[in-house]
Specification:
Layout lengths: L7 H21 L15 H18 L7 H6 L11
């Protein structure tokens, strides 16, 4: 999740408000919510590094041979990952 604003405080508050709502919705549905990286103000260099980290995370989470969504559904489990950076 990203935001652009000339006021850093407003941007961080908007992100935190959104995170709080997402957490509330997930936990009310019996899910587990974990923040991988707290909202922060970043520079262009930070953004480039974050993009690389997200690409690595997507590659790591990519479905590999033998993985099956049906396997989790058969066990009554639903897994979801949300990257917030």
């Amino acid at each position: 999740m990203t935001t652009s604003t000339p006021e850093k405080t407003d941007g961080l508050k908007a992100l935190q408000d959104a995170i709080d709502k997402i957490k509330e919705t997930i936990t009310q549905s019996g899910g587990v919510f974990n923040i991988q990286m707290a909202p922060k103000v970043v520079t262009a260099t930070d953004e480039a590094e974050l993009a690389r980290q997200m690409e690595r995370a997507e590659a790591e989470n990519a479905e590999v041979a033998g993985d099956s969504a049906d396997e989790d559904e058969d066990q009554g489990k639903l897994h979801s990952t949300v990257l917030i950076g």
